[in-house]
Amino acid sequence: MQLFSGPSISTMVHGVVLGGGALMALFAALFSLYAMRPAQASAVPPAAPSRAVALLLVAAAAALWLTVLGGTYVVFPPYRVTPPEGVTALAAYPRAFVLADPSTAWLHSFGMEIKEHVPWIAAMITTGVAFVATRARERLWEDEEVHTTAMVLIGLCVALVACVSLLGVFVNKVAPVQ
Amino acid sequence: MSTVTGANGSVWAAILASGIGAFAMGLVVILNEAGVFAAPSLYGPSGGVSGRTTIAVVVWLVAWVVLHSRWKDRPVDARRVRAVTLLLIGLGLVATFPPVWAVF
Which of A21, A111, B12, B38 is the most exposed place for a label (fewest CB within 10 A)? Predict the structure, then answer.
């Protein structure tokens, strides 16, 4: 018996390695932005720590892009395969399987529909903030407007990615890609 | 910490572009759900999501390039840009929220 199939490994890489990695990097960046927040312009953190935060944000953006691209073009296709006419055993067809039962239909009509689009928004936002943190590092730490905005946007991305990850866990629990 | 003056355009171009990208995503999704515009499927096995997300990413990148080239050497009103960015992101997220589609 095969323990993991190719598609199930792809799903784990997508959700645990890349999505989980992105969430950890985003949270670490958010915490660093808060903890290293200078009380005044003269107390701007030294170059090395602020460069580390920039690297965290670049890593988060890279992981998010790999997550959404892998999710859309590798993991999603086997999820949405239409079962052949007359097939009643739907376990191998996750979308059809969850839609067949009214108590689990929301996993597709709500959960997967959100998962299809919202992570892309988080990837675009994180990339924008990562650009600021790498190309305008001094301004990120010296300018209160920029710093506050970066914290708000990364905090939003943490919430979005966490919610989407949870929905992914629910879908994969009920109808795993096999 | 304080508000720093000077050319801050490239910073806010990157931030506003992300708001425009988020709004574009929401707009494409809501138009699709309303039956007004169906994005072409660029990769058959993934279906329409491949077209919808590609359109939003292209809009985001074009907006970023245009804003960056126009703003990079000049100061912009940070508060106004931040407010517009957050509004666009909020609208984009609302439009991608499935219960909202029932309105259309």
Answer: B38
Rounded CA-CA distance A90/B33 in Å is 27
Residues forming a β-bridge with A143: B2
Give the residue-averaged pLDDT of A109-125.
97
Kindly determine whether residue B15 and residue A77, on different chains, have CB atoms separated by under 8 Å.
no
pLDDT in tens, A53-66: 999 999 999 999 99
What residues of A are in contact with residue B90 (Cβ under 8 Å)?
Answer: none
Query: Which residue in the block uniquely carries the two structure tokens 């376990």?
Result: A91
Asked whether residue A1 is domain-assigned, the answer is no
Residue at A68 is within a domain? yes
Contact A127 B85 (CB under 8 A): no
CB spacing of B56 vs A120 below 8 angstroms: yes
Q: What is the pTM of this model?
A: 0.94
- A122 domain residue, yes or no: yes
